[in-house]
Amino acid sequence: MSLEFRFQSASTEYQKIQTELASLVENRTRLDAQLSENEMVKKEFAQLTPSNTVYKLMGPVLVPQDQNEAKTNVETRLEFIKSEIKRVDAQINDGEDRSEKKKSELVEIQTKLQQAQSTPNS
Q: CA–CA distance from 5 to each of 2, 13, 24, 110, 113 (Å)?
Protein backbone atom coordinates (compact mmCIF):
# COMPACT_ATOMS: atom_id res chain seq x y z
CA MET A 1 0.00 0.00 0.00
CA SER A 2 1.43 3.39 -0.99
CA LEU A 3 2.28 6.02 1.59
CA GLU A 4 -0.16 8.47 -0.01
CA PHE A 5 -3.00 5.97 0.27
CA ARG A 6 -2.07 5.14 3.89
CA PHE A 7 -1.94 8.86 4.71
CA GLN A 8 -5.35 9.51 3.10
CA SER A 9 -6.87 6.51 4.89
CA ALA A 10 -5.43 7.51 8.27
CA SER A 11 -6.53 11.10 7.73
CA THR A 12 -10.10 9.98 7.03
CA GLU A 13 -10.09 7.81 10.15
CA TYR A 14 -8.72 10.70 12.22
CA GLN A 15 -11.50 12.99 11.00
CA LYS A 16 -14.09 10.33 11.84
CA ILE A 17 -12.69 10.00 15.37
CA GLN A 18 -12.77 13.79 15.80
CA THR A 19 -16.43 13.86 14.70
CA GLU A 20 -17.27 11.11 17.20
CA LEU A 21 -15.46 13.02 19.95
CA ALA A 22 -17.38 16.21 19.16
CA SER A 23 -20.65 14.28 19.42
CA LEU A 24 -19.61 12.72 22.73
CA VAL A 25 -18.61 16.09 24.17
CA GLU A 26 -22.00 17.48 23.08
CA ASN A 27 -23.72 14.58 24.88
CA ARG A 28 -21.61 15.20 27.98
CA THR A 29 -22.60 18.87 27.98
CA ARG A 30 -26.28 17.93 27.68
CA LEU A 31 -25.93 15.47 30.57
CA ASP A 32 -24.25 18.14 32.71
CA ALA A 33 -27.21 20.46 32.09
CA GLN A 34 -29.67 17.70 33.02
CA LEU A 35 -27.67 16.89 36.16
CA SER A 36 -27.66 20.53 37.24
CA GLU A 37 -31.39 20.88 36.56
CA ASN A 38 -32.26 17.77 38.55
CA GLU A 39 -30.01 18.76 41.44
CA MET A 40 -31.84 22.10 41.61
CA VAL A 41 -35.17 20.24 41.73
CA LYS A 42 -33.82 18.03 44.52
CA LYS A 43 -32.83 21.15 46.53
CA GLU A 44 -36.30 22.62 46.03
CA PHE A 45 -37.89 19.35 47.17
CA ALA A 46 -35.79 19.48 50.37
CA GLN A 47 -37.54 22.74 51.28
CA LEU A 48 -41.06 21.34 50.89
CA THR A 49 -43.36 20.74 53.84
CA PRO A 50 -45.79 17.81 53.86
CA SER A 51 -48.65 20.22 53.15
CA ASN A 52 -47.09 21.43 49.88
CA THR A 53 -48.51 19.99 46.67
CA VAL A 54 -46.20 18.79 43.90
CA TYR A 55 -47.43 18.86 40.33
CA LYS A 56 -46.19 16.98 37.31
CA LEU A 57 -46.55 18.26 33.75
CA MET A 58 -48.24 15.63 31.60
CA GLY A 59 -48.74 17.01 28.12
CA PRO A 60 -50.45 20.38 28.50
CA VAL A 61 -51.86 19.57 31.96
CA LEU A 62 -50.41 19.84 35.47
CA VAL A 63 -51.48 16.88 37.60
CA PRO A 64 -50.86 16.45 41.33
CA GLN A 65 -48.15 13.96 42.24
CA ASP A 66 -47.24 12.37 45.56
CA GLN A 67 -44.23 14.15 47.09
CA ASN A 68 -42.39 10.94 47.92
CA GLU A 69 -42.95 9.59 44.42
CA ALA A 70 -41.65 12.84 42.91
CA LYS A 71 -38.56 12.78 45.15
CA THR A 72 -37.89 9.15 44.28
CA ASN A 73 -38.23 9.93 40.57
CA VAL A 74 -35.70 12.76 40.83
CA GLU A 75 -33.25 10.56 42.80
CA THR A 76 -33.58 7.80 40.21
CA ARG A 77 -33.01 10.30 37.39
CA LEU A 78 -29.93 11.69 39.15
CA GLU A 79 -28.46 8.19 39.52
CA PHE A 80 -29.16 7.45 35.85
CA ILE A 81 -27.63 10.74 34.68
CA LYS A 82 -24.51 10.18 36.81
CA SER A 83 -24.05 6.68 35.38
CA GLU A 84 -24.49 8.04 31.84
CA ILE A 85 -21.88 10.73 32.56
CA LYS A 86 -19.42 8.03 33.66
CA ARG A 87 -20.15 6.01 30.52
CA VAL A 88 -19.73 9.03 28.21
CA ASP A 89 -16.54 10.10 30.02
CA ALA A 90 -15.09 6.62 29.42
CA GLN A 91 -16.03 6.88 25.73
CA ILE A 92 -14.44 10.34 25.50
CA ASN A 93 -11.22 9.05 27.10
CA ASP A 94 -11.15 6.11 24.69
CA GLY A 95 -11.78 8.45 21.75
CA GLU A 96 -9.02 10.79 22.85
CA ASP A 97 -6.60 7.84 23.11
CA ARG A 98 -7.56 6.62 19.63
CA SER A 99 -7.24 10.19 18.31
CA GLU A 100 -3.72 10.57 19.71
CA LYS A 101 -2.64 7.22 18.25
CA LYS A 102 -4.05 8.13 14.85
CA LYS A 103 -2.42 11.56 15.03
CA SER A 104 0.95 9.94 15.75
CA GLU A 105 0.42 7.56 12.84
CA LEU A 106 -0.36 10.52 10.56
CA VAL A 107 2.81 12.35 11.64
CA GLU A 108 4.87 9.20 11.04
CA ILE A 109 3.43 8.67 7.55
CA GLN A 110 3.84 12.36 6.72
CA THR A 111 7.49 12.23 7.78
CA LYS A 112 8.08 9.18 5.57
CA LEU A 113 6.34 10.95 2.67
CA GLN A 114 8.53 14.02 3.09
CA GLN A 115 11.66 11.86 3.25
CA ALA A 116 10.60 10.00 0.13
CA GLN A 117 9.97 13.27 -1.72
CA SER A 118 13.29 14.80 -0.65
CA THR A 119 15.31 11.71 -1.56
CA PRO A 120 16.46 12.01 -5.19
CA ASN A 121 15.43 9.17 -7.43
CA SER A 122 18.37 7.04 -8.61
A: 5, 12, 29, 11, 11
CA distance to 2, 118, 121, per residue, from 73 (Å):
58, 66, 72
β-sheet bridge partners, residue 57: 62
Find out whether 99 and 3 touch, Cβ atoms under 8 Å: no
- Collapsed DSSP state (helix, strand, coil) of residue 78: helix
This prediction has a pTM of: 0.81
- Return per-residue pLDDT of the chain as tens, 122 residues: 688 899 999 999 999 999 999 999 999 999 999 999 999 999 999 999 999 999 999 999 999 999 999 999 999 999 999 999 999 999 999 999 999 999 999 999 999 888 888 876 64
Contact 106, 13 (CB under 8 A): no
